[in-house]
């Protein structure tokens, strides 16, 4: 059975993928993180995003159609996403315990 379709890219991500090369050309040796930062600045400064928003809307429509087809062919939306969602609370519990430990350390210092 085929895997569940991947979620569509946002208008920003579609634009960034097309603009990435020009950003790199204008800023030789720029780090990946800096490309994303510069891309964000350029995106926020853009006045007319309708072209990219239209492409994103089309990608979302295509995705919705693909998901319906996937589910109609016996695919389950809970089967793929459910396993990922179950593992996240475990990580959050670990983070909470670290915060609890740091709170206890703070109490020890004040005594």
Can you describe this structure?
The protein is built from four helices and no strands. The protein has 111 residues and is mainly alpha-helical. It has a domain at 11-73: DNA Binding (I), subunit A. The N and C termini lie far apart (61 Å).
* SSE sequence, one letter per element: HHHH
Low-confidence runs (pLDDT<50, min 5 residues)?
80-88
The helix count comes to: 4
Euclidean distance between termini CA atoms: 61 Å
* Beta-strand content estimate: under 5%
Structural class: mainly alpha
- Sheet having the most strands: none
Biased composition (Low complexity): 72-82
GO molecular function: DNA binding, bending; minor groove of adenine-thymine-rich DNA binding
Subcellular location: Chromosome; Nucleus
Organism: Drosophila willistoni
List keywords for this structure.
DNA Binding (I), subunit A, 4 helices, 111 residues, HMG_box_dom_sf, 78% helix
Question: How are the SSEs ordered, and which strands pair?
Answer:
Elements: H1 11-26, H2 32-45, H3 50-72, H4 77-110
Helix pairs in contact: 1-2, 1-3
């Amino acid at each position: 059975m085929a895997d569940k379709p991947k979620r569509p890219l946002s208008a920003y991500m579609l634009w960034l993928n097309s603009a990435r090369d020009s950003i790199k050309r204008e800023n030789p040796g720029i780090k990946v993180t800096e490309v994303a930062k510069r891309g964000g600045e350029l995106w926020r400064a853009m006045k007319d995003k309708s072209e990219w928003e239209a492409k994103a809307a089309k990608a979302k429509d295509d995705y919705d159609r693909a998901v319906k087809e996937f589910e109609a062919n016996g695919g389950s939306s809970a089967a793929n996403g459910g396993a990922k969602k179950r593992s996240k609370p475990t990580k959050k519990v670990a983070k909470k315990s670290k915060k609890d430990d740091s709170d206890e350390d703070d109490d020890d210092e004040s005594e």
